[in-house]
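Changelog-adjacent note: as of this version, every example in the card shows the full chain rather than a window. The one below runs 240 residues end to end.
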Amino acid sequence: MSDDYSFPPFAREMHKVLEKFGGRRMETYNGEDITPLWNLQGGHLVSSYKYLYAAPKLDKIVITESCFSDKLMSYALNILPDDRHGLPIYVCFWAESSKGSYFILDLHPTADCICDIPYMDHYLEPLDAAYSRGIEKFNEISTRDPTWFRALKSPFYLNADVSPSTRQMQDFMLGLAVEYLTIYHRLWKQDEPRDDAYMKRLNERKEAIRQNFREKDPGGYMMEKALGKELAELSIRALF
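Full-length structure tokens:
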């Protein structure tokens, strides 16, 4: 690792926007004690935390940061709406080392957008300007995305797989993540509850997204190897 290399200030910059949601850190989620996730260590995992926040209109806000022994950092922020609101799911994942960066950013729609164009116009079109800047730089199709993941992405999904990592590239990716989050906050602030009949299909899709991540996310294997099965399963349930 070069002397002038440093990791991006992901948590600091994201928290500047997250504070606007007025969230409260949760000690339990769905009846489970999640405080063990506040300080995790084991095996190749040098340090890690996962904090969950409760906020109006949302099921949870999840922010996590992990440091691995091979000089690798990973960051993630997930925001899931509650069952009364049609908001998409904010997802940002970032694996970072001096060798390169792997970055995912999206608002996963909870509606089938081709069947619900008004949903796409309202919740996703506001991303267009930020997406256009991102896709101009990151225009190669990812070869890492499995089929199930490609089925849940929005038309405004961004993915970067760059090497080596540079401060300029870090700043660009962090700027995109903050901009998507700022747009999400604006949508959240304006959002109103939907009727039960409309939300039925949206909640079904949201639950299917969560279940697929819980069963298939590759990070689960890494956490189980470092922490053991029980704690790794708690971590995955908390994240998704």
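Structural remarks: The chain has a mean pLDDT of 92.
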